[in-house]
From TrEMBL:
Transmembrane intervals: 149-169
Pfam families given in the database record: HATPase_c (PF02518), HisKA (PF00512)
Source species: Maribellus luteus
Enzyme class: transferase
Name of the featured protein: histidine kinase
Superkingdom: Bacteria
Length: 569
């Protein structure tokens, strides 16, 4: 295309060059003709036809010369014999132009010869002289005459074309590779792209692009693994956690968060705005408003935190929030019911313990005071009060022992040494321990636990379990009862025991609370027997430490039955 354009341009130049040359020639001819007419007085003498003599000696082959009067009448025409009858030439384009500018030209096909003529007219003082020559600048002729030029052009463009093709091949290799890379990167199926690029600028750029892409991809992959870890971590958390944009739109949260928020709002909450409007979040809401709605606070230097606890239907939630430097924020909701209940329980327990300790202490003090204030007192009375004080001090010791035992089981269970223990040996020891009381109360003691009922446990705790149960039966069951211990079942993991007596049993309404610390059915009676109210609590905790469960029920025929399991391993 470029070659054709150049040739066309060259053709046009050739054409206009020929035109200029032709015009120059024709101008000369008109000049010569004018001179010839004037010098030979052809017009005055009416010898215009003598112009043929001039034409014959002109170097140009067969020029057409026309002499036209100022009015347009043809005075002579070298091509037409009967020129006097020719039509008026006043309006011929070349004449009109000559009238306006002194000279004018026009190219048109002659009606007489059907050849293309170049007409050139010039205005002289008394007439126009028009000269015309065949205008033969055709493409064919041009091509014919310019073969050398065309050959040169074609060869030149072939060479340039070849160079272009070579350069393009080189460039397109890199570009094709880059395209392949882009397509694969676009569809994300890229694992590693290690094509070698040529060592040119494009190759270096491509190499760099791929390097940057690979780095980005690696970072992205690393990030998504980290993100996944974070998500899994968030989901595994016991806390509800959510992140919000500064516009209070939730950007990330775990399942627990939605669950918890819905727990303490009346209607179903799905959006963050709804959540913040719920009454439990009032404090959070005003905290956020204080920091998010003004630009005055500089969040770069300090991180505002909010931490408070709300309670909802016997449950306690700790709400914790941090506002980050970009004004996005995090809300963490933790169910602290257990902790809170434990805290309250501990509080209650402490006051219970204080109360329980106070009773024997003030008794001891009372007895000692009586002795001192009434000194000297008869020896018998002295002994009586001292015995009473001693009994209370025993009670105090028992109480303190029980309290510290129960605390140890609860807080430092792992400190109890576990080893293979035969339950039969324990029950035997307990029987030994209470034998005189058992005899005294005429209690029938039936122990059906078989030898080699071996579990992995702590000897002294297991002893406490049976000791407390038997002691209670002795203390609350009354005389002539029967105590029955048996291991009624075993499976792969547990031994299942039943401990029962045939005493008075425990009133139904007290059963659910019987394992609580310091819980007694009959406070007065318990005090007489020296019970601390901790016996069954110890039983329960010790069984739990052996991965077992304990429950209690009244026997249909009277008396209580404790059912419990103890883990073998
Ligand atoms: P305590 O040290 O007062 O005996 P426990 O925790 O051992 O405390 O027992 C709690 C209460 O359960 C006792 O006060 C008693 O009223 C009742 N109790 C426990 N065992 C028996 C039983 N075998 N028969 C009847 N009542 C019992």
């Amino acid at each position: 295309m470029f070659t054709i354009t150049v040739l066309a341009f060259q053709y046009q130049r050739e054409k206009s060059y020929k035109r200029a040359r032709l015009e120059n020639t024709l101008d000369n001819i008109t000049e010569i003709t004018d001179k010839f007419i004037r010098e030979n007085h052809l017009l005055e003498d009416n010898h215009v036809s003598d112009l043929a003599d001039l034409i014959s000696i002109l170097p140009e082959t067969n020029p057409r010369i026309t002499v036209i009067s100022k009015e347009g009448k043809v005075l002579y025409d070298s091509f037409v014999k009967d020129y006097s009858s020719m039509e008026n030439h006043y309006n011929r384009p070349e004449i009109m132009r000559a009238r306006a500018n002194g000279s004018g030209a026009n190219i048109r096909t002659s009606a007489t010869t059907s050849q293309e003529f170049y007409y050139y007219a010039r205005l002289f003082p008394h007439y126009y002289i028009r000269a015309a020559l065949v205008f033969d600048v055709t493409v064919k002729d041009f091509l014919k005459t310019s073969t050398q030029f065309i050959t040169f052009m074609v060869v030149l463009f072939l060479v340039i074309g070849l160079i272009l093709v070579l350069v393009t091949i080189k460039l397109s290799y890199t570009i094709t590779k880059l395209k392949d890379f882009a397509v694969r990167a676009g569809s994300n199926e890229l694992v590693a792209f290690d094509t070698k690029f040529p060592a040119n600028e494009l190759g270096i750029i491509s190499g760099q692009i791929i390097q940057i892409y690979n780095n980005l991809k690696k970072t992205k992959d690393d990030l998504s693994t980290e993100k996944e870890k974070l998500f899994n971590h968030l989901d595994a958390l016991d806390e509800g956690i959510a992140f919000f944009s500064p516009q209070k739109v939730m950007t990330l949260s775990n399942g627990k968060f939605i669950e918890m928020v819905n727990l303490f709002s009346k209607k179903e909450v799905v959006s963050a705005t709804e959540m913040l409007e719920s009454s439990s979040f009032k404090k959070l809401h005003s905290f956020l408003s204080a920091y998010l709605e003004t630009d005055a606070v500089d969040l770069e230097s300090r991180v505002p935190k909010l931490d408070y606890t709300v309670s909802k239907e016997e449950k306690y939630f700790r709400i914790y929030s941090i506002i980050f430097a970009d004004r996005s924020f995090e809300v963490v909701v933790t169910d602290v019911t257990r902790l809170e209940k434990r805290r309250l329980m501990k509080q209650q327990l402490t006051s219970n313990i204080a109360h329980e300790l106070k009773t024997p202490l003030s008794s001891i003090r009372g007895y000692l005071e009586t002795i001192l204030e009434n000194w000297p007192i008869p020896e018998e009375k002295q002994k009586y009060f001292l015995e009473k004080a001693f009994f209370q001090s025993e009670r105090l010791t028992a109480l303190i022992n029980d309290i510290s035992l129960i605390n140890n089981i609860e807080d430092a269970g792992e400190l109890f040494e576990m080893k293979q223990v035969d339950i039969k040996k324990i029950t035997n020891d307990v029987y030994e321990y209470f034998s005189s009381k058992i005899e005294h109360n005429k209690i029938e003691f039936i122990d059906e636990v078989k030898l080699n009922t071996v579990i992995n446990g702590n000897e002294s705790l297991l002893f406490s379990v049976f000791q407390n149960l038997v002691e209670n039966s002795i203390n609350y069951g009354g005389q002539g009862i029967r105590i029955h211990i048996k291991c009624y079942h075993r499976d792969e993991r547990y031994f299942y025991f039943s401990y029962s007596d045939t005493g008075g049993g425990i009133p139904k309404e007290h059963l659910p609370r019987i394992f609580e610390r310091f819980y007694r059915v009959d406070k007065g009676r318990s005090r007489v027997t020296g019970g601390t109210g901790l016996g069954l609590a110890i039983v329960k905790n010790a069984i739990h430490l052996h991965n077992g469960r304990v429950s209690v029920k009244n026997r249909p025929k009277g008396g209580v039955e404790f059912l419990f399991s103890l883990s073998i391993k």
